[in-house]
Amino acid sequence: MMRWRHRTTSLSASADTLFWAWALHAGVMLFGAWWLQRMGLWAELVRGDPSGISGGIAVLAAICTVWIGRRARLLALEARPSGGRWRAAWRADRAAGRPEAAQLLSERTHGPHETAWWFAAAAVKLGLLGTVVGFIVMSMQISRMQLFDISEVQTLLKQMTQGMAIALYTTLVGLAANLWLGLQLLLLDRMADQVAASILGDGEQAS
After folding, report:
1. Containing domain of residue 134, as a range?
2. Phi, psi (5° rounding) for residue 82?
3. CB contact at 8 A, 165 and 49
4. Which residues make Cβ contacts (< 8 Å) with residue 136, sequence separation at least 6?
5. Could you tell me which residues come within 8 angstroms of residue 128 by beta carbon, excluding any fewer than 6 positions away?
6. pLDDT tens readout for residues 25-57
7. Is 28 exposed, middle or buried (0-12, 13-18, 19+ CB in 10 A)?
């Protein structure tokens, strides 16, 4: 019993550490956003990507980061030795003799993460969409070219840079958002695994 209490206490400390680590990372992200704004890079991003895809990816990453923080806080509460809703529900399912008790526990601990992983993957897909849009813009500019003289070529090159900027900005922002969200979700999944294992061990200890 003492060993089990030590494991749950250690798990609670790890879950709290994860939440505060997320808070630190969120603070770094806010500082980075402020610094980019101060340096005028956000305005440059808006001018370089008139499609708005890069801005949409950034907003998506910010919303997912906030959700991850709330989820990390929930895991910290459920990992406490005093127990939580998941532990109580697991005990109730076992007492009722439900064969799907383990599946229900897995849904509580990991189910919402699947949607978050989908949004993380969507960031890359939106970046690729922006790349396609950028190349379409470039091809449209080329198709409008009538004469291949020097002045026409110079004008064409200036117009093509807009499509190239869309392609590069959206790809960069999409990859950065995916890496940022993927790291957070990986740590969140690992903590959810530990919480689920602790609850399962609690049931075995009780039996």
Report:
1. 2-206
2. -70, -10
3. yes
4. 163
5. 171, 174
6. 889 889 988 998 888 888 888 888 888 899 999
7. exposed
- Report residue 95 as tokens: 């007492």
HEC per residue, the chain: CHHHHHHHHHHHHHHHHHHHHHHHHHHHHHHHHHHHHHCCHHHHHHHHCCCCHHHHHHHHHHHHHHHHHHHHHHHHHHCCCCCCHHHHHHHHHHHCCCCCHHHHHHHHHHHHHHHHHHHHHHHHHHHHHHHHHHHHHHHHHHHCCCCCCHHHHHHHHHHHHHHHHHHHHHHHHHHHHHHHHHHHHHHHHHHHHHHHHHHHHHHHHHC
Number of domains in the chain: 1
Residue 115 in tokens:
């949607």
pLDDT digit string, tens, across residues 111-131: 899 999 999 999 999 999 988
pTM, two decimals, is: 0.82
- Scan for tokens 């790291």, then name that residue: 183
